[in-house]
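[09:14] KT: can someone run the structure on this one? pasting the chain below
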Amino acid sequence: MKRRHKIVFIILTAASLGLAGFSYNRKSPTIIENAYGYAVTPIQSLNVRASEKLKSFINYFRGIASLNGENTRLKEELLETRAELNRLKLTESENLQLEAIVGIQQKYSNYPTTGARVIAKDPGNWFDSFIIDKGTNYGLKKNMVVMNEDGLVGKISECGYNYSKVISIIDDTDAVSAESLRTGDIGYVSADFTGEAKCRMQYSDTNADILEGDEIVTSHLSEVFPPGISIGHVISLDTDDKNDMQYAMVEPSVDFSKLKYVIVLSASFENELTENPDASEEQ
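[09:31] RB: done, structure tokens below
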């Protein structure tokens, strides 16, 4: 047994020295190295390609995640920008309305005026009647005139301490004395009550020269409204079948789908009128 071990040891030693000598100063790999490389290289190549694919795959999804995060950030910034622009537009619109109200106050400087904000309205599409944030605490009273930068809105129908209810010309059953700005022909304007924000101007004079497009304003005969306030423009002419009276459909100057600020305009004769419960319905 010992002899056999010695023989194996000698053979292995000789083989090792032979291989060492064979590889000394060699210029090419040994047969064993070639065989090893031939077997291992495809596996290494596969591992490298798999590793590169995995890295590419991971980087792809990292890129998507980063892109999604960037998109989310950009969307948030866009929403913030839009909100800021809307706020600026709203502020600009409000500033224009306030500037127009100042212009009205200067135009009717001989009358006391009070600016007010609309704070509530009745249900529906139109501002048929609504609430403003000023009342008797600002000296407001029933029947005071309400208008905005475009023209006549209506009048105060009820007054509280810090609020007032306004009834507009598209809902008021009372008639407003009016005239054609072009010709001076007189008539009476009242609400049309057809579900649209329209008014009807009734006039009995068959010779009245009322035409489509004419601007209708408050007349000098009104007991409540100062003369010359724009009511609207004639959009059609017709005759009432019940009484054969001619009338004109009037598109109000005021946009009654949106009201934010108004001016309350009062004249000295209104104080007497508000104290008289039997005042005429024709205004």
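[09:33] KT: thanks! Residues 48-107 form one domain.
[09:34] RB: yep, looked fine to me
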